[in-house]
């Protein structure tokens, strides 16, 4: 019998992590080789995010579970007693029987659940201050129009990236619901990890799209690829002209993509006069 929640989670897990690894590697390349001098300082911040997210995706791709010191047989017995409708066959079972008695588990849980709210509030406060500062220098000699436009694009990127902790909030909420026993299901437990995977995968896409030099480089690469592909498919026409004695005109053979077309070219009035 197919465990559909697990199957969907595995497909989601490997797909999102692969996308995150690819686009973070692309952003790392852009930050190092394609960053203009005007945003060099900001690119250091993006490079830091890209390296961190790249490491997160790589680690999550090859790490599917964490072991604990509690006895596996006791954990399995507890789970089968509490969740009789769960499928535990051919599964790796690990965990902590009582998180209040394990400081390792408690530190990890507190670190993953508590900082998200104050960090999100700090992001929103800083975003508001940045908008106010940009508005105060808009139209003055302190900042040119091009620089102001670039900063506005970066601000939009930061604003969207500020929304990414929302996915982590979903992870915290789903974990809290399951931990407190409000509702339990395999889908809810998989949601705890699946929603958090979107953060390192979406973040580089936002940076590449809103930073104009990076976006222009991607577009240029695309058109180069498209042009190369079209040139490899469409061959240039080759025209071969043969003159046949006794005919009133020349027969022109036109080859296009190895298909032969024939057309008869009539003599011009001047050529006819010269012939007579």
Automatic annotation (TrEMBL):
Localization of this protein:
Membrane
Question: According to its record, what are the GO cellular component terms?
Answer: membrane
Tell me if Membrane is a UniProt keyword of this record: yes
Q: Which Pfam families match?
A: 7TM_GPCR_Srd
Superkingdom of the source? Eukaryota
Alphabetized InterPro entries for the sequence: 7TM_GPCR_serpentine_rcpt_Srd, Nematode_rcpt-like_delta
Hey, which family's this protein in?
A: Belongs to the nematode receptor-like protein srd family.
| Protein name as annotated | G-protein coupled receptors family 1 profile domain-containing protein
């Amino acid at each position: 019998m197919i465990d559909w929640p697990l199957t969907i989670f595995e497909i989601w897990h490997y797909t999102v992590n692969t996308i995150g690894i690819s686009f973070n590697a692309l952003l790392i390349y852009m930050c190092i080789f394609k960053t203009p001098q005007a945003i060099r300082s900001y690119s250091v911040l993006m490079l830091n995010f890209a390296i961190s997210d790249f490491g997160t995706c790589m680690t999550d791709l090859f790490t599917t579970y964490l072991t604990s010191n509690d006895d596996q047989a006791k954990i399995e017995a507890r789970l089968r007693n509490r969740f009789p409708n769960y499928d535990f066959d051919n599964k790796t079972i690990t965990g902590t029987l009582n998180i209040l008695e394990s400081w390792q588990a408690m530190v990890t849980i507190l670190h993953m659940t508590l900082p998200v709210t104050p960090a999100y509030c700090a992001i929103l406060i800083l975003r508001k201050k940045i908008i106010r500062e940009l508005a105060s220098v808009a139209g003055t000699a302190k900042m040119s129009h091009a620089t102001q436009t670039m900063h506005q694009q970066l601000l939009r990127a930061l604003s969207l990236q500020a929304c990414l902790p929302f996915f982590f909030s979903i992870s915290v909420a789903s974990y809290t619901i399951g931990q407190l026993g409000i509702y339990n299901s395999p889908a809810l437990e998989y949601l705890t990890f699946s929603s958090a995977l979107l953060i390192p995968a979406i973040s580089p896409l936002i940076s590449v799209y809103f930073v104009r030099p990076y976006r222009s480089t991607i577009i240029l690469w695309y058109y180069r690829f498209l042009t190369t592909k079209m040139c490899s498919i469409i061959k240039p026409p080759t025209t071969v002209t043969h003159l046949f004695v006794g005919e009133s005109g020349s027969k022109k053979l036109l080859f296009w993509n190895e298909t032969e077309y024939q057309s008869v070219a009539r003599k011009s009035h001047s050529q006819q006069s010269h012939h007579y």
